[in-house]
Amino acid sequence: MENNNEAKNVDKNLQNVVKDLDQVKVSSFHAQQIQQDTNDRRHQDALNHDE
Length: 51
Prior knowledge:
Elements: H1 2-22, H2 28-50
């Protein structure tokens, strides 16, 4: 039983690695734009809560 659980865990870890590798890579500019959008939303949210 113990070996079966270990095998399932290793398989799940490998699936996660493959999933990560399959993600679309973005340029540093695009990544910065995405981060800026997140920052803008947080800033606007903070302004809205100050009212």
